[in-house]
Amino acid sequence: MLPVERFIDFAVQNKLFEPGTKVLAAVSGGIDSVLMAHLLKSAGYQFGIAHCNFMLRGPEADAEQEFTCGLAAQFGVSFHTTNFDTKLYAAKHKLSTQMAARELRYQWFAGLCQTAGYEAVALAHHQNDTIETILLNLTRGTGIAGLHGIMPRNGNLVRPLLFLGREEIQEIVANEKLAFMEDSSNASVKYARNKLRHLVVPVLKELNPALEQTFERNLRNFREMEQLLNEKVEALRGEIMTTHSDEVHISIDGIKRLSPQRLLLFKLLQPYGFVEQVVDDLISVLDKHAGRVFNSNTHTLVVDRGMLVVVGIKTAADMPVVINEGETSVNYHTFKLSVLQDDSPLIIKDNPLATSVDAELLVYPLTLRSWQMGDYFYPLGMKDKQKLSDFFIHQKVPLHQKGDVPVLVNANGDIIWLGGYRPDERYKVGKNTKKVTIFELIKL
């Protein structure tokens, strides 16, 4: 089968693009991307060429830019190019030069797709790139997801050369007498990927001359195993996980039945940002420490009575809210607090989400916030003060819900009302009350 026929067959099998798809080909001018552009042209696909000059290699990079422009003219396709001050971007965003170049490139591609109507971005990765990626992942540490290699499609990013290895690409380019540019930085072993390419992979090829084909078979196995694992994890979500408003509950009894426990629990918690070390620590305290708290960048996990509770970390929307005199409502977390004035000594009973207090005792501005260590109040009906931490224990408020309880605070620092639970004895409506303020929490 001719290279162009294999190219079309691979694109069809992996649903990369169809004859009518408008493709943006990322072309550096190197051997791989030149072959990709040649095959796109030979196969009759509609495409344009995009080239980035990262301004890192002086005249050499400028020559590649000029060469790629000529290639687009030769093929009679649209040409898009841009220059990036990569070092400045890397310094500004505290990135390595390689990561900065990657971000700049993909941001630009995304913009071109929007403005020029491209439906797919074709990248010239091949089988040896996949081998290098897997070896890098193994060196740095990875799970099975890091072993599936570079995927043919990821969103609108497609890789139509993954059916070819480096040696085969060189052979096809030589047979077709295609001109290309040599990137001198590819010969350097300064970067980890280049070290693998020049020092490690050749040794593996000596051990197994059919290295690319062997890896391709391994990749199929790894991808199928990953699919099985993902299906198992999705089934477990329905069996031992439940969602309650903005909380996720995971049964500890269900976790104890998992096998393999560590892997499956990690996969269940991975979407919430928890890393493997947290999972190890968590397993060690499942039977011992109710109340232990673990944090990821986005979520908090609490070991509660018989369950793990996962909640999102509070955002700016959950910060303290100031209530000025005359305001009739404010939003706090998932509630709206309604504030009403009444000239009669109205006493509200049997509604934990509403209370009436003596209006003349209020000192504005009031504050609505979450509880803090050391907070205390005088629960209605009691003469002695009580710490909120003790009150929560007596009321059996779950640990993960304590932070969601709205605490209404007077300007003098007194707690007026523990929303949803109890007002303060000092602010109750009494026989001498002339005017009341009514507070009501309404779930948004």
TrEMBL record:
It is found in: Cytoplasm. GO terms for molecular function: ATP binding; tRNA(Ile)-lysidine synthase activity. Residues 366-439 form the Lysidine-tRNA(Ile) synthetase C-terminal domain. It catalyses: cytidine(34) in tRNA(Ile2) + L-lysine + ATP = lysidine(34) in tRNA(Ile2) + AMP + diphosphate + H(+). ATP binds at S28, G29, G30, I31, D32, S33. One of its GO terms (cellular component) is cytoplasm. Its main location: cytoplasm. Keywords: ATP-binding, Cytoplasm, Ligase, Nucleotide-binding, tRNA processing. InterPro entries: Lysidine-tRNA-synth_C, Rossmann-like_a/b/a_fold, TilS/TtcA_N, tRNA_Ile_lys_synt, tRNA_Ile_lys_synt_N. It comes from the Bacteria. It is an enzyme of class 6 (ligase). One of its GO terms (biological process) is tRNA modification. Its EC number is 6.3.4.19. Pfam families: ATP_bind_3, TilS_C. HAMAP family: tRNA_Ile_lys_synt. PANTHER family: TRNA(ILE)-LYSIDINE SYNTHASE-RELATED. Belongs to the tRNA(Ile)-lysidine synthase family. The N-terminal region contains the highly conserved SGGXDS motif, predicted to be a P-loop motif involved in ATP binding. Ligates lysine onto the cytidine present at position 34 of the AUA codon-specific tRNA(Ile) that contains the anticodon CAU, in an ATP-dependent manner. Cytidine is converted to lysidine, thus changing the amino acid specificity of the tRNA from methionine to isoleucine. This is tRNA(Ile)-lysidine synthase. It comes from Mucilaginibacter psychrotolerans.
